[in-house]
Structure formats: C-alpha cells, structure tokens
Model the fold of this input.
Amino acid sequence: MKFRSLAVAATAALSLTALAACGSSGGDDDAAAGPTTIDVWLMKGSVSDDFLKRFTDDFAAKHTDIKANVQIQEWNGIGPKIIGALASKDAPDVIEVGNTQVAQYSASGGVKDLTDKKADLKGDDWIEGLAGPGNYEGKQYGIPYYAANRVVLYRKDLFTAAGITAPPKTREEWLAATAKVNTGGNQGIYLPGQNFYVLSGFIWDEGGDLAVKEGDSWKGGLATPEALKGMDFYKQIQALGKGPKDSDEAKPTQTDVFAQGKIAQMIAVPGAAELIAAANPALKDKIGYFPIPGKTADKPGAVFTGGSDLIIPEASANQDAAYTFIKELAGEQWQTDLAKTMKYVPNRTSLAASVGADEGVAAMAAGAANGKATPNSPNWAAVEAKNPIKEYQTKVLTGGDPAAAAKAADEIITQALNTK
Amino acid sequence: MRTRLSRKITLNVLALGVFALSVFPVYWMVLTAFKPTKNIQAETPSFFPTHVTFTHFGTAVHADGFWTFWRNSAFVAISAVLLSLVVACLAAYAVGRMKWKGRQAFILMVFIAQMTPWEALLIPMYVIARDTDMLDKLPILTLIYFMMTLPFTIVTLRGFLKGIPVELEEAAQVDGCNQFQAFRRIVFPLLAPGLLSTSLFGFITAWNEFAFANLLIIKNQDQRTLPVWLSSFSNTFGTDWGATMAAATLFMLPVLLIFLVLQGRVTTGVAAGAVKG
Amino acid sequence: MAVAQAETTTAAPATEPGSPGSVRRGRPLWARVLPYLLVAPTVIGTAYLLAYPLVRNLLISFQKFGIAQLIRGGAEFVGIDNYRQILSDQKFWGVVARTFVFTAINVGLIMVLATLVALLIGALGKWMRFAVMGGLVVAWAIPVIAATTVFQWLFQSQLGVVNWVLVAIGFDQFDGKAWFADGNSTFAIIVMLIVWQSVPFAALTLYAAMTTVPKELHESAQIDGAGSVKTFVLITFPILRPMFGLILCLEVIWVFKSFVQIWAISQGGPGDATLTLPVYAYQIATVLNRYDLGAAISMVTVLILAVVLLAYFRQMFKEEGEL
Done:
C-alpha cells in the first residue's frame, strides 16, 4: 500500500538518520592511553604530498608519543570553517592561516598566545611579512610558516629575439624592454587591471602605503602623491599588453592565458611556472625569472609578502603536542626543506641564503628582502573581501580621474578599517 | 489563417531556441571540461573541441575522498527529500482534505516559513548544533535541508491536491476502498507532476548547499559533502578550471537522472489520470 | 464534466467538505485527532529547526555578538543599537531601493518568460517537450559556481565569446569592451544570469500545474471558437492562479535574497551599482564577523518581504478560510 510504503520510507529515512548519528559520534576519544593524536589543518597546495610524507614520517619517528593527523583544507569557505573550529568544543590543534587573515583570529580571543615561545622559535629572525600579521597588540599569536612573493616570469626566447640580453633592473629598463617585446602578435606583459598586490609593491616603492595608522585610527593612503605615482606606473606598464582592465589575475586564470604562448611577461610567484608547464609543456624550458624592478638598480621593487602562519586554537585539547608540531615545522631543518621543495621563502631571514640555486627562488628571495605585508588590522580581511582598491584600479585604467577615484577608495578603506 | 504545419514549425523553432538558450552556458561548461588547459582561454573561442582530453575528469575523479563525498551527499539529499515528501504529503492531506481548527493558522505558518532567511541562520544553527553535540554529523544537514524544502513542498502538494476533486476519492470508497487506499490509488498518481517538481527542488537544494555543510562539518573529514569537492580544485595559485568544470558536469548528472526517472513516471501518471474524465 | 464536478465541490453545502466518507454528526475521536497527527511532524520540525534558530537570531540581533562572543560567550544585551546603526546608515535606504528595482526587473522577466515557456512546452509534441524540459532541468541543475564562472568568461573583455561574436558580426566597438567596468552592464549581466537560472524552476512548476487543467476545457473552448490567447486568459490562467501566485511569491523572496551570483561577479560593484541588501549585509556584517548586525539586517529583510507579500498572504488566508 502506497500509504504504508510512504510510512516505511519515512521510518527508513528517520532511522538511517538515527543510525548515522550513532555511528559517527565520537572519534578519537582515548587520549589517555597511547600516543596523543593531534589534528593539523594545512591548506590545499601549501605543501606537496611528497614533503608531507617525509615530514610526518620523520615527526612520528622523533616524537613517538604524538600522532599527527594532517587534514588538507580547501581555500573556498575556509574563513567560516576556521571560525567554526575556533568556536567549537573540540577544535583542531594546529591550523594554517593565510597571513592576511590571521589578525582577525588573533583579535577574537580564540587563539593561543605564543609570545613566550618566541625566543624558543628564534622569533627575532622571522621575516616581517609573516611575523607582523601574526602579532596583535604586542602578543604573538601566529607563528610564521612560509612566504612567497611575486617575480616577473618572462619568455627567454622572446626576449632574446628582441635583442634583450639581460633582464631589466630599473623601471625605465623594464618599460623599454616590455615595449620591445610588445610586437608581432605577442603581448609585452599580461598584467590584469585589478592585481592590487602588484600595485601595492609600486606604491611601497614610492614610499606610500595602502593605509596608515595614525594613533588609534587608520586612514586610507591611495590618494597620497606617492601612491598616485605608483598607480601611474602601473598604468604605464599595464598598457604594454592586453590584460583585462576590469578583472584580476584569477578571471581568467593568468597561467592559462600565458600558456597560450603569446605573452612575453607575467607577474606571479615562481611556482606558477609549473602550472604553465603542465598546461603547455613546450614552454617548460623557456621561462625565466627576474625580481620586479625597483626605482634604482641596487634595490629590487617592493613586493607583497604572501604566506601563512600557524596558530593553536584555545579550544585545542592538546596544546603542548600542537606546539611540538609547530616547532618542528617552523624549525630550521624543515623550513629549508620546505623552501627548496616548494620554492618558498623560509620564515627566517637567515635561512634565505640556503634555499639553493633555483632561478625562480633566487629571484623571489631577492625580492623578499624588500617584502611587506598589508596593513595589520583585524578588519583588513573585510577590505579584501569587497576590494575598493581593485575598483580604483579599473576606474583609472578606463580613463577615470585618479585623484577622485583614489579619494573614493580611501573613504571606503578608512571606514572599513576603523569599524569596531 | 495559419496551417497546422506552419504552427508546428514555429513552435518547434521556438522550442529549439529555448533549448539553445538554456543549454548554451552548460554546454560551455562541459566543453571546458574536455578542453586541454591551454585552450580554455584561447584568443579565438572554439565552439567545438579541437583536441579532446579526459585529464580533467581524471583529476576530478581522483580527488581525495571522491567516493566519500558522493556517498555523503547522496545520503543527505535523498533522505532530506524523502523525509520532506512524506511529511509534506501528510500535512497537505490534512490541510487539503480535512477541516480542523487551526488549519488557517497552520497554512499561514507554512507560507511564512518560506521566507526564512537561511543564510542568517548559519550562526544560530551553529550554536544550536554545538550545544546539542550535532556538529560534524551528517544528520544535522539532512534535517536542515528537509526544513528548507518542506514549506514549498507542502504548499505545492496542497495546491495540486486542491485541483483533484474529492468526488474521485469518494467514488473509490463507494467501490470498496478505505480512505488510505483511495488516496494511494486515485490521488497519488494525479499528484505525480507536483511530486516531480518538489522532488527535483528538494534534491537540487540539498545537493548544492554549501554554507551549512561547510560550517557544520568541521573536523570529521569523512562527513564532507559534494559541494566541498566542487570547490576543491582551487589552490594557492589559482583554480584548475578544467577540473572544476569536469567536476561540475559530474555533479549535475544525478539531478538529470532523477529528472529522467521521475518524468517517465509523471507521463505515465498523467496518462493514468485520464480517469478524471 | 470535470468542470461541473469542480463547481459542485465548492458550492455544495450538503456534503461536509473534507473527510470523504465521513458521517454528518460526531466524527469518531481518531478522525478528529488525525489531522493534528498528520501535521505534527511539520509543526515539530518547524519549531525545532526553524522557529528556534529564528528566535536565536532575533536574540543575537539585540546583542553585541562578534567572533569573540561566539567563541567565549558573554554576549551583552544592547537593545536596538544594532537596528539603529543599520537604519541610520545613509547607504541603507539607497540599497533597499536598489534591491526593489533589482527584484522587480528580475521577477517580471522571470514570470513572463516562465509562463511563455510553460505554454510552449504544453503545445509541443512528446519528444520536443522532453528535450526542452531536459534543457531547462540542465540549466536549473548547474552548480552556481560553474554558472557564474561561465557567464564571467562569456563576457570577458579580451577573451570572451560575447565580444568575439559581436566583433565578428561587425560591431567593432565591442572589441575589448570591459563589461564589468560599467555599473549598468554589470547589472544587466547579473540580471541575465539570475533570470536564466530561475526560469527553469518556474516554467517547469507552472507547466506541471498546467497539466492538471483538464483537456476537455481547452477542447470545449476551441469548439466555442476561442483563440489561444483567450483560452489562456479565460480558462488556463484562472485555474493556474494559485500556483502562479505561489511561484511569484517564491521568486520575489529568492531574487530579493540572491547573493552568491552578485558577490561572485561584482561584489556589489562597480561602485555601488549592484549593491543589493544581501550583498550589503555581507559587506558590513559577515566579512567583519559582526553577526549581530547581520542578524539585524536579516530581520529587517524578513519584515520588508512580509510587507511586500502582505497582499498575497491576505489573499491566501482568505482562500483557505473559504474552504
């Protein structure tokens, strides 16, 4: 009878529900006997499978009393997920957090204060772009993990064909070289209009900043003469190619476009070369790197330091074991290995020299010396979410008045950063 | 005066137009799934793939936990739909065929329930789940998706039920059926088109939902659902769009399957409903 | 014949409406309790899974509630401060007005197109009907992330299909046109996306309702000489009205609250061109982890929608009372 079978279906659905609830309750609960299990959250793509295996095997051998259960998390939706984790009763023990996001978690009270461990981790040696964001009101919550910054990827064959023998070292040389390769169906440089990380670098080179803290409040810095000069240079170099003026480096994915083979330069982290080679193997050996040129030949351009910090949630039940894990991962041995394997910048400035001779990493390390982070405010994540800087860029590139557009963007930044 | 043939041709041309407009973006998605990465952003767009590759589907299928995701999503979506169909049928029958005090209030409550701001209930739901120890467990998602689709299902089934004259059931009862048998034999087949739209609606809602699944399933990786898989092809460098589109194509197939299965039964049901005359 | 029967059902006072086979005086206890039993699961579900979180949400809107309170508790009561902050923001009312315009345009297009498509489906032969319905299901089922990305790709300034086709036809001014740099074109693209995604559900459900209209009515209308338009207006639409009203109500709610597409494509920009209420809420509340403000805005949204749909609710309440 259909009615009865409906009832059966309902009971089935409900009992499945109940059964599943029973089945999945409680996971690892016996921490008393046997090794302490810690849950570690690492972000997708931050370490290779090979590195992870080597690290966890070594860690297990060195620390037989701790079992590290590493879970790879997706970037999409990670914000709410971390908040949910920090607020839960049973949080993971170590979480990798992007350096532009860590300040908001530090300010929440849900992260363990690790200031007293700073000396143990040789904290004075940390690179500023990672340590700064991890520090809130004088206390260190985030432990620097790894960093990467942008360099210029270029087609060695196209440069040689245009008669350029050495990579440019100053802005003038760069503009000249780019103009030379911007012919014959090729683009001199593929620079999307809304790459605000690159713009930040140009602004820092002029002595300006995206936002400045005056006393207790923030003020947007795009309308300052220095920042306007930075934007002007962005406009000049952007014009030597066909990057979309109303979009950023993800729409479309710039490595996909570069892989077509008709672009001479692109600004990205060195690791992007692997994606290009995967899409178009013919380009594999044709890609070279040089640091983003600065205003003078002796100092490469300032770059945005991207990267991650490691945090321990207050709600973690195994904070000591968690710290042991962090100490290993942020320690000299594994930082050097990580930098070499993944082409990263290690978390300590003194380790930069030991990352080996890979061309891309060398270019990146040269730039890293002049690396800076975004304004250290818990509200910065909000600015990046609806980014007035990107809109400002598009307005200027499509012919708008830079000063007026900068002022409008500044108002939004000021308001967002000063919201309590 | 239009001949039947020219009318038929016009209708079919219009139909093809509607089909093309509905399908074109989806076609583009599937096309991307088969294009090698370097052709995805080609200067001259190609409407037919010149080189076909299955690598993206390979990447999509070999993702970590692929089968777990599918199993979890299937469980959650199917149980949510079944639950909501059953509960809604009961409620629709009570509202459409019986007279009782509070019926008006009840149906008003159901209508208002359709306005629920689910996106705002993320945090309260999280707090409730945390306090009742339901975090990291799939059934909480089943219950939430069930509640998301219930109001619409009740209202739709009630609407369809109203269009089915009581006399049909009464006639069946005169012939010897009791109330339930009359419902099952006469009314249920006539409800079929309504059941199709509400099942599809419920399934798509549950199948696609990301925000709650992302927030409420925290540590237990085994309980993650498919939308998480769909967005897992982004990493620090950018998104692997070929793999994402391949994943999206696979993601859509069960919905199509359900439509095919149900639509077949609907057509039979509607034909059987010729008993109405 | 069915028409006559339908009329008898609503007009006849003799038969007790409802419970087929019931006796006129004094129903047995189980029959009187049955309706309440049947709706009990709904009521319980609604109370626990909907009313309770909603009340919680309302509570949060009267508290100071951010990440810190979520993690550590101790949310203090601040009365209507959150509401005051939202309603006194000079941007707020502009955003609401824009959301109304946005909703009106989308819903208007959706309902008109859905009705036309539903009628079209009804008039087709079996295989074409199946194909068109399949096409609609496919558009309905595509994951939002894929749909938004594809739409963005189609309208890319340098590599997009739309610009390429327009230039190929001869409109050279579209070479490299930056669709997303202009407020109006971004708005239009988002409308296109939302209408494209919403019509399938509306059309399929309307069509399903149309199948319940007995064929005899159409046939007798044709015999009486009525053309298709008249048939629709006088016969189909009146029967369809409840379902049409329901779908209209739902679409208003869903479009008013649509967020993902707008956020993914423009984040409410450029400038404020596509800043609707849900996007605004996300901007000032969610990204700053101000759950209290978010709760307040959501309550205000529900209130606005309730007022907008008041007429619909009154009508429906009246209808139910008549039965």
